[in-house]
Amino acid sequence: MREVSVIGIGQTPVGEHWEKSLKELAYESITAAVQDAGVEQFGALYVSNMISGQVTGQMHLGALIADFCGYRGIESHLIESACASGGSAVRAGILAIASGAHDVVVVCGVEKMLDSLSDRVVGALATAADAEYEVDQGANFAAINALAMKRYQYEFKVPDDAFAPFSMNAHANAVHNPNAMFRFAISKERYLKSAKVAPPINVMDSSPICDGSATVVLCASEIAHKFAGKPIKVLATAAATDSLALHDRFDMLEMRGVRLSAQRAYEQAGLTPADIDVFELHDAFSIMATLSLEGSGFAERGQGYRLALEGEIAPHARIPICTRGGLKARGHPVGATGVYQVVEVVQQLRGEAGATQVTDAKIGMTQNIGGSGATVVTHILGK
Predict the structure, then answer these.
(1) 51 Cβ partners below 8 Å, 6+ apart?
(2) How much is the pLDDT for 64?
(3) Is residue 316 part of a domain?
């Protein structure tokens, strides 16, 4: 298997893009990434998206975006793994190069969530849950995560305000990210006063509905020197699954997909959690950030929330997370999120993260989660 590097990155601001179509957003991030890499030709385009067919009425995005961007004739595919679509598409691109099928590929994540009313979008997102035993019983993802958060609070005697530092950290970091949706800090008081979505989850525990597109250009490391980009090596790519339904798990507070994908990534890279300088985790809800830290080996069971409470997740602390705002404050355009995470780790390893730059960052990890943990894709990148 050949070594793979990221040589180009591009992204659009995350937010409300009423004036732009899905393919226009994709064009913007692809063009930026290709220019960043200095690439003229590539072998394949992988597009990640979750809900376009239900919200915009458009599928077959691989061919659509290749055509619209002027790359008609190349190989192109749509990758869907719910909210983990972006991470899955990046993994597909990595494996295509590692196998020798292609020398250079482009991976674009894109999502238009605001072209429909919120009820329709929430319904589309719910298709990532168990349709028969969760969705048909009235559960959406806020409700499903609320069940997990309530159980966590009960088992480990954790008060509501213990999760506030996750949101506060994300917003504090987003202030310095020009592509973030919510570029403002929040106080603990604002967190506590925010409206409940599905108790105990409130608005400040939850990532927003939004539009956005992010792209990475990958190539075989042996030819990375031929291009203009600053190459960042892919040290590991790993994926794992768990049950779709939360109630089908042996332990609803153990994210088995997180644990397995992280373990496999560490083994591939020959690293441990102590070697990770920056971690872009999947904080779609505060409880998911907590369980991801525990499942990935950064905290013992029932102790993940303490990393936030004790200030250990800030850019200059022990395990910096969500350094560009995370899903909570940068935004969560679902099918694109996993690609945004890779873009942001590359920014950190290049030393391009501005005021939230992690000092001397050499190793970065991303973790993209689909559904309530049914699909998990973990990548480790190295300077």
Answers:
(1) 111, 113, 121, 124, 125, 127, 334, 335
(2) 98
(3) yes
Residue 126 lies in a domain: no
Q: Which residues contact 279 (CB under 8 A, 6 or more apart)?
A: 296, 298, 319, 320, 321, 364, 365, 366, 367
Compute the distance between CA of residue 296 and CA of residue 29 in angstroms, rounded to an integer. 30
Q: Which residues sit opposite 196 in a β-bridge?
A: 202
Q: Does some domain include residue 36?
A: yes
d(CA 347, CA 182): 19
| Same domain membership, residue 73 and residue 157 | no
d(CA 37, CA 72): 20
Range of the domain at 371: 140-207+234-382
Q: What is the pTM of this model?
A: 0.98
- Do 217 and 328 belong to one domain? no
Whole-number Å distance between alpha carbons of 14 and 210: 7
Within a domain: residue 12? Answer: yes
Separation of alpha carbons 305 and 301, rounded Å = 10
- In DSSP terms, 212 is beta-bridged to 111
Q: Which residues are catalytic?
A: 83, 332
Block means of pLDDT (10 residues each) for the chain, 383 residues, are 97 97 98 97 98 94 98 97 98 98 98 88 93 92 96 96 98 98 98 96 97 98 92 98 96 96 98 98 98 98 97 98 98 98 98 98 98 98 96
- What pLDDT is attached to residue 115? 86
Model pLDDT, residue 103: 98
Burial (CB < 10 A; 0-12, 13-18, 19+), residue 300, is exposed
Residues 30 and 151 in one domain: no
Q: DSSP per residue over 206-238, as a string?
A: BPPP-BEEEEEEEEEGGGGGGSSS--EEEEEEE
CATH number of the domain encompassing residue 225: 3.40.47.10
